[in-house]
Amino acid sequence: MASAIRPRRGRSRSGRARTLRSPKVAAGSLILLFFVLLAAFGPMAAPHTPDWRASRLDNVPHPPSAQFWLGTDVQQHDLFSQLLAGGRDTLLIAFVAGGIATVLSVLVGVSAGYLGGKTDEVLSILTNIFLALPGLLILMVVMKMMPDGDTGNPLLIGAVIALSAWAWGARVLRAQTLALRNQDYVDSARVVGESRVRIIVFEILPNLLPILASSFIFTVIYGIGAYASLAWLGLINPTTASWGTMLNTAQQFSATTSGTWWWYGPPALCVALVGIALALLNFGIDEIVNPRMRSTRRGRRSDRGPRFQLGLTPVVRDVVRAEEGIRP
Amino acid sequence: MRALLRRLWFYLLAAYAAITLNFFIPRMVPGSALQNFLAKMSTASLTPDQLRALQAQYGGGHQGLVGQYLTYLGNLLHGDLGLSTSLSTPVSTVLANDLPWTIGLVGTATVISFLVGTLIGVLAGWRRSGLLDALLPAATFFQAVPYFILASLLMLSLGFYGGLFPTGGAYDTGRYATVTPGWNGPFIANVIDHGALPAATVALASIAGWIVGMRNMMITTMDEDYVLVAAAKGLPRRQVVAVAARNALLPSISNFALSISLVVTGSIVTEIVFNYAGVGREIFNAAQAADYPVMQGILLVVTFTVLGANLLADIVYVALDPRARKVA
Amino acid sequence: MTQIQTGRRPVTTPTREVVLEVRGLDVHYGHGPGAVRAVSGADLTLHRGEVLGLAGESGSGKSTLAYALTRLLRAPGVITGGEVLFHSRPQGTGVDGGTTAGPVETVDVLAADAATLRRIRWSELAVVFQSAMHALNPVARVDAQLTDVLKAHRRSMTAAQRHERAVELLRMVGISADRLRSYPHELSGGMRQRVMIAMSLALEPQVVVMDEPTTALDVVTQREILEELMLLRERLGFAIVFITHDLSLLLELADSIAVMYAGRIVERASAAELFRAPRHPYSLGLKGSFPSLHGERVRMEGIPGSPPSLSAMPTGCAFHPRCAFAMDRCSRETPPLVTPATDLAGPDGVPPSSRASACWLQDGQQPAPDALALPLPPASAPLPGSPS
Questions:
Q1: In chain B, which residues have pLDDT < 70?
Q2: Is the minimum CB–CB distance between C204 and chain B shorter than 8 Å?
Q3: Chain B contacts of A271, Cβ < 8 Å?
Q4: Of A324, B196, C124, C339, which has the fewest beta carbons less than 10 angstroms from its beta carbon?
């Protein structure tokens, strides 16, 4: 665990450049950017409001057409408009949840790891209890009990989701802080007499950034899943426009078993794509934090080098070729 | 053993915290839903005893907060989780019917995904080849997509359109059912058939975590001298891998605690998609019917199940790591 | 401070039979454009029952060389040239037991496949790692770690025989049999290293490679263990490749010594020759860097500067930037490892076969500095402090 830690100063710029070139990070960022733009401008770009209905007489869902790009549902809502509008709350709630949970996890995890002793014991027990609690289930009960008006409030829901999600980050951050606390440069800062807050903010936190980012992304993935699930279960105010709510309506009208793929497919795909984009970003961060974990991809070209195997050091006799690569 | 006893204290504390949280959740939720609920109950056909128990659980009546809390604790000690308001049966009876299904489903899926994931992780870490790269996109997809979407996807593809597995229920019921519940061959086969897709959902969603975690730990462990010693000893390759894997497994088991509550809640959502007979379907129905006693009973029981699984993981860890047997 | 009872035999054993031969071994780290040269053209000869010391500062390539010749070097290490020949004799033939000597089987280590390597590993060529703390499997009991090699290499042994052998091995290194059920973390540092040594001898190998086996221990324990080790060697007759940065230790333990600098062997000599009459400026400096634990007082002189990094190797002789005697030529041409001109005719008119130095000062074109041209000691001369 400790081997993953390097003082931040040691990281070269080339490491950062490599990250940007990583196809995983590039793909993840592009997809995420697309959905952030969708969340910001989607509702404005939509041809209709989410509760606009094409006709009040017809009650058969229509497949995609030139008029309704993604077709309509039973009640003749324009599904394309709903899809464009449905990203905003989902992303907002997930990022709010991620932000709050990250702040909480830093407060609890870094304090526990740095202060140690009784503080650590109490905070660790608190963290472990929250880890064991089935967050989504508590959310289900709480959401059910909350009045409809409150379940339509994205900030409140984000905060509630964050309460059930901070413990993972706190646990990881505590372990890393514990390892960092005994590093030489932190010791020397302590000896020099820097204040505790200064040490935490300037010596410890910068080195926790990759883990912080990774835990933030993880919480956002969780937040998207949790919010979509709650909405799909019908526990979120049904008048809210969100992908989860769309899926809830589709579920109520048995869309999945009646072959109306255009109804449930696009919102499910959107939720899945955002999750995948974030997961790709997370893999990218992982590779920066632990460069050794990068998979050694063996290309088809034969000059990719020898095959390493524990206890069987490769012997490459072709000295001329090996010699070419050696700096004089 | 003393190390385990220390942990036991934590579990007792966590269980107590969950019980207390369960008591306060309805009181922390803003809004008048609970008052409405109680008002409705007082006009329902309940015995005065039952009504008093409900009031202790949800506030109201003439008892003070402390009195309510003590009544609630007393009832819990007798295994009394209250009365289901929609089914008019004790919550404990409802749960006794549901819980075995859920535990069977989660248990099987978790064991399968842990074993398969760990095995793939060991191989991926040992060979450092493109194996993981090939698996990564799929694994990412399964990990990043919410359970209910993955469950629906499997249900539609393999069940509804593929026709390979039943799409719902835990076993055949209804007029055309040919099986009789009990320990007989056809029934067990029927249960396995129905459980395949839900179990596959839970297993697929959690397998990526085991693969990546185990692979990374394998790579770290293979840098240890004792693995090189195993190779230097001229042991068969399988034994060398086993030395590394045996040590790499330890962190994987402590990660179990981090993930089990996610897996359990995920499987509850999965049950809802497949209309499976466990606590998932029960809590969904209870949410529809605003049956708070059932929801809270499930919350409590699921928390205890998660704590039990954690305790089990702790015991396994102590059994596998001789260093953990010393009291830290 | 007691001194190590090395039980030194005369350097020349009855059969000066070679057991391990390394010829021109080249090792690189990495491949392609970023690769660096870690070991260049290393030649070593290990005779049966001999202690061969590999000395040098950290980063000199001594461990790389030792791990490469066993094919245990980790990625990104690549062997790019040379030859490693292991002349194995079947079990039960000791160093001086010419009577039972069977036919010699030569294994070309660099050409060997995994199965061949597995066969000779530990049974004929064992390794003791620097830190037993890390070299012992933390989750396996001592007996399991001692008997797994028996199970793998001696298929015919029964469980009872394996147990008996494990007890015997522990007793050999002075540990009582009840420690068999212990886990490594329950043992002291010295005990762990003893277990490691017992483990390496489980199959009575012909060669044991020891990578700084006592560096992690305190000086007293270090002495005790080395004494035991030398007695065991006396009894069992295995040869040792002993890697250390501590030249003074080698002067006491080793029969012959190879000094490495920046991936090259710069001097090879018997311990007595190296101590009395070093022929390379680096050996001279290294000898002056360590206080002798006993014996005559010597003035401590370090070597100015620090060893070069593998990726920025000086041209010519890699030592020339730190060398007090450097000439123009040293920065242009790499000196070969050859017998010094001074020694071409030895003290008795017989050239000592093993003596070699990679230094232009010794090519006979110019008189070597006095410190590097001391006369060789007579073959039987004891080292200071050696039992006489």
A1: 1, 29-46, 56, 59-63, 128-133, 136, 174-177, 326-328
A2: no
A3: 145-146, 149
A4: A324
